[in-house]
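Batch job 17 of 40 flagged for manual review because the log was empty.
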Amino acid sequence: MKIACLSGKGGAGKTLIAVNLAAAAGNATYIDCDVEEPNGKIFLKPDNVQKSIVNMLLPEFDGQKCTGCRKCVEFCRFHALMYIREKPVVFPEVCHSCGGCKLVCPENAIKEKKKPVGIVETGKHNDICVVTGVLNPGEASGIPVIQEVLKQEGDITVIDCPPGSACSVMESIMDADYCILVAEPTSFGFHNFKMIYELTQLLGKKSGVVINKQDSPYEPLEAFCEENGVPILARIPYSEEIASIAAKGKAVYEESETAAVIFSELLEKIGGEL
């Protein structure tokens, strides 16, 4: 079972939910796909961390073989190639490493070279396998790193997605069985929640809502969920206890009886939805 945790904005509590859901599951795999700012490991503190380099493949041209036919340029839908001053030019920031240019080259003038774009860290926290993707500073896309971390999975896999609804989020939830939409009970939080809800609908994903930092019902969000048949799986209270534990870099499931009950019940409800 693959469970993805999404939020329409940073700070909504997506990582809080993902980390503690993995803790509630026990023998689980936690995957941090928020590769630009991964911080799940702050709470889970994995031991015996192993690191591996993630490379992307970039086209490299043989000037002696290239005839300037421009078939590679015409093929690239991402506009990562241009033919300027009688030679092909690669724009690595927008290359998706699909390899199509190499396939269509009639002169076999293209080879692929490796470019490091990030790392994958793998360790253990109790029975939880903690997998963290880290994008190198300055890289334009985290997709190659996300694809690499998602190769690891367990019986229960919890995916901590990037915030928002961009391509990196789509890549993170593509194979998810269920999506948890983490929302704040504010007008801004509701606006961003609707974006990720629309994304899950577009991809045909089952989803439910966790309302975080709730001190009183926020009627527009509650009404939207009722009208669209979106189950509210849990309400995390606006709690000084939870905030204090999280601020110390600890998993609240392991430190708070109240939180332990909330996340255990959340895991059961998700199982009932599938």
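Reviewer: the log was empty due to a logging misconfiguration, but the result itself is present. Residues 210 and 233 are 6 Å apart (CA to CA). Unflagging and moving on to job 18.
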